[in-house]
Amino acid sequence: MNAPLKPKDYKSGIKPIWCPGCGHYSVLNAVAKAMAALELSRDDTVLVSGIGCSSRLPAYTDSYGFHGVHGRGLAVAQGLKVARPDLTVITLGGDGDGFSIGGNHFLHACRRNVDITYIVMDNEVYGMTKGQASPTTPIDWDSSKLTPHGPGVRPFKPAAVALATGAPWIARGYSGNPNQIARLLSEAIQHKGFSFLHVLSQCITYCPEQTDWKAIVHEREAEPLTDASEAAALFFAESGFETGLLYHQPRAPWPPQHEQQPASLDDIAERLRV
């Protein structure tokens, strides 16, 4: 019998090209730890991403991966899971990829509740394209020459939006605590339905002030909320720096169990006939 794989066995031989100090390194380590802890088969696990610094992560893992186009990672991942429900499907992206051009896919992924896990590495900036404000950039952020007076736009609240559109599992992690991310990711993968893991992943190249997050981030001590109204009150009032499993209200994933067997090409052709 083969010995269980270790976290390093889930990493590819490709060296990451993220900037020194980037929080995404911690997420990569957490993904490898979670895969090893769950003893996932590398042949039956697929990592899907869009475009951006964070979306490079599938190349750094030794499993199947799909590097899609900007904002479309969730669309690909949901289609894959519906066609192959036997696979473990993990989607990865950043705040720009997931909440801007991919925002509509995010809304409907929460609502649809396909059994996939979505990790968003949020550094509040478009890092790969040199520091533009993203959907989660603070309204008064003026550290970039591209936004000398700040973006002047209220930032997106990922947890609140996920809750409002029906996500049944919502958690937040911090890149400074990779063991916590690995634990949350393990729970997310085991959850039956759509799971959303929002990771505060610092970009010290364009947002050096994010090194202050270490002193601000704190783990939630209470049990995850199960009432949507209570969760809404929390998500609209909180600072966004509380981590842990924040909300969990299980519901049946889509498609219904009796429809999960993939149709044959002949069946599909018959349905399409006029």
**How are helices and strands ordered from N to C?**
HEEHEHHEEEHEHEHEHEH
Find the count of extended strands (DSSP E, 2+ residues).
10
Number of domains: 1
| CATH fold topology | Rossmann fold
Q: Main beta sheet, described?
A: 8 strands, mixed
Q: Unreliable stretches, pLDDT < 50, 5 or more residues?
A: none
- From the coordinates shown, what is the CATH architecture? 3-Layer(aba) Sandwich
- Taken from the alpha-carbon principal axes, the silhouette is globular
Going by CATH, the homologous superfamily would be: Thiamin diphosphate (ThDP)-binding fold, Pyr/PP domains
Mean pLDDT: 93
Radius of gyration: 19 Å
The protein's oligomeric status is single chain
- CATH C-level label: Alpha Beta
- Distance from first to last alpha carbon: 54 Å
Strand order of the largest sheet: 2-1-3-4-8-7-10-9
Strand content: 15-25%
Based on helices, strands and strand pairing, what is the structural class? alpha/beta
Count of DSSP helices?
9
Q: Which percent bin holds the helix content?
A: 25-40%
Task: Write the topology of this structure.
Elements: H1 24-37, E1 45-49, E2 64-67, H2 73-83, E3 88-94, H3 95-101, H4 103-112, E4 117-122, E5 125-126, E6 132-133, H5 158-164, E7 169-174, H6 178-190, E8 195-200, H7 213-216, E9 218-219, H8 228-237, E10 242-248, H9 265-272
Helix pairs in contact: 1-6, 3-4, 5-8
Structure description:
An 8-stranded mixed β-sheet has the order 2-1-3-4-8-7-10-9, sandwiched between helices. A two-stranded antiparallel ribbon has the order 5-6. Helix 6 links the parallel strand 7 (169-174) and strand 8 (195-200). It has a single domain, classed as 3-Layer(aba) Sandwich (Rossmann fold). The protein has helices at residues 24-37, 73-83, 95-101, 103-112, 158-164, 178-190, 213-216, 228-237, 265-272; strands spanning 45-49, 64-67, 88-94, 117-122, 125-126, 132-133, 169-174, 195-200, 218-219, 242-248. The chain has 274 residues and is α/β, with parallel strands linked by helices. The mean pLDDT is 93. Helix content is 31%, strand content 17%.
